[in-house]
Amino acid sequence: MYLERLLSGYKLIRFFFSFSFFFTFVIYGKIFEENSYEIPEIILFIYLITSFVLIFFNQILFLEFFLDIVFLTAFIMFYFKLVPYLSILYLYPIFFYAVLTGSKKSFILSLLAFLIISYFKIFIENIDFSHLFLISFLNGFSLFIISFAGIKLNERLKKQEIFQKQVEKLKQEQEIYKKLYHISANIAHEIKNPLASISASAQLLKEGHINQKLVDIIYEESKRIDTLIKDFLNLSKLFSGKIENINIYEEISKIIKTCLTKNEIDIKIFTKDKEIFIKMDKLAFNSMMRNIIKNAVEWAKSQVIVSVEKLGNYIYINVEDDGIGVDESIKEEIFEPFFSKNPEGTGLGLAIARNIALNYKGDIVVSKSEILGGAKFTIIISLEDKDEGTNS
Questions:
Q1: CA–CA distance, 3 with 172 (Å, rounded to integer)
Q2: Which of 290, 283, 284 is nearest to 359 (CA)?
Q3: Average pLDDT, the chain
Q4: Which residue of 3, 215, 371, 383 is 20 to 30 Å from 142, comparing CA positions?
């Protein structure tokens, strides 16, 4: 992460440096110099274009840092008066290559820069041989120490990245444990209440209080626990694993018939094409649609509308009701296991439905129904080929 940012930063800095250097040199040359230095201008222009192109390469190439030194040297060769000022620039490609790669090839760049600077000192600046040894030693020491420092910094950055990944992994694990604790606590709470009713009713029956209401309580609470366990298992169930070509209109029509309640909620399905098919596990599809439609029926005042539309490689199934809608603050929470505003619900239906959609490269989003004014659940399913066992 740090190294990727550093590489991007270096490439951008190189481009802006070459850009500013090129135009500064051109303007300075035109105003203050009598002679036009065409070759240095060409070199700087080529370097500017090269640095711009290299911005779009994410890989770390030894060649590009080598070219930094070559271009700098080529420019100095045609503009000798800048040798004392530009020599320090050799440190930058060496240092950044060492930091970014941690490779000992950076010492090759150091050696190359050392030989070039030594050549300039001897043949261009005409340094006295009595001072040459000291100057060469200082230059060489600076170049090699910057390379060594870069390699060590690379090691530290990599260790820091590993440490940060470990910290992030621990945070993720902690979040998983928190969710598991939350789910476990909710399961215990959901099972505890009906068990208490069953236990109390059984105790009264044991004491000889024969009452049909007590039998009904035991039956209803046992049924509630059974439903809770089945819903919880469906949250991560593999289903049949059999992929079928499902006629969406026909399957939803069957589900609607089973969702009609004594409240006489009017449920209608609309689609321009009744021959829209999707390849899915039929049990998974039915479970997903049943939970969404059942939720709409529970909250609707009098009407539920289901519409189906195919756009590109996606199927959009909208389930809308004329109920109170979903508050913006809980739009994501409603898909969490055991989150329910219905006192009679288990809080697993929407979680099961979304889990199925996600496993089929889709999703379920909730918004306000523009038609009925209540909630609008949009199921999005991809028509792309599914991997085996996606609905896990």
A1: 23
A2: 284
A3: 80
A4: 3
2-32 and 38-54 helices, crossing angle to 10°: 160
Please say whether the beta carbons of 380 and 362 come within 8 A: yes
Same domain, 161 and 248: no
| Helix extents (H) in 235-266 | 248-259
Q: What is the CATH number of the domain that holds 279?
A: 3.30.565.10
Parent domain of 30: 2-167
Question: What is the reported pLDDT for 385?
Answer: 60
The encoded tokens of residue 199 equal 């236990």
Domain count, the chain: 2
Q: Is 341 a residue whose pLDDT tops 80?
A: no
Is the CB of residue 291 less than 8 Å from the CB of residue 350?
Answer: yes
218 and 198 Cβ atoms separated by less than 8 Å = yes
CA-wise closest residue to 372 among 317, 299, 316, 313: 299
Is residue 183 included in any domain, yes or no? no
Has residue 301 been placed in a domain? yes
89: tokens are: 């620039």
Per-residue model confidence as pLDDT tens digits over 113-157: 888 888 777 776 666 666 667 777 787 888 899 999 989 988 888
For 77-121, write each residue's pLDDT tens digit: 776 666 666 778 888 899 988 888 888 888 998 898 888 888 777
Whether 65 and 149 share a structural domain: yes
Tokens of 318: 């909208």
Q: Which of 278, 308, 290, 302 is nearest to 378 (CA)?
A: 308
Q: What percent of the chain has pLDDT over 70?
A: 80
Q: Kindly report, residue by residue over 299-318, the tens digit of the pLDDT.
A: 888 899 999 998 888 899 99
160 and 282 both lie in a single domain = no
Distance in angstroms (rounded) separating the CA atoms of residues 164 and 149? 22
Tokens of 145: 């120490």
